[in-house]
Amino acid sequence: MNISKKLSRFNFIPQEFWTNVNWTTLGILYTANIPVYLALGWFFFRTWDNFTECLGYLIKPDIWSWMNGEMVDDFWATMKIYLWLALCLGAAPAEYYVITNFMVFT
Question: Most CB atoms closer than 10 Å: which of 8, 9, 72, 101?
Answer without folding.
Answer: 8
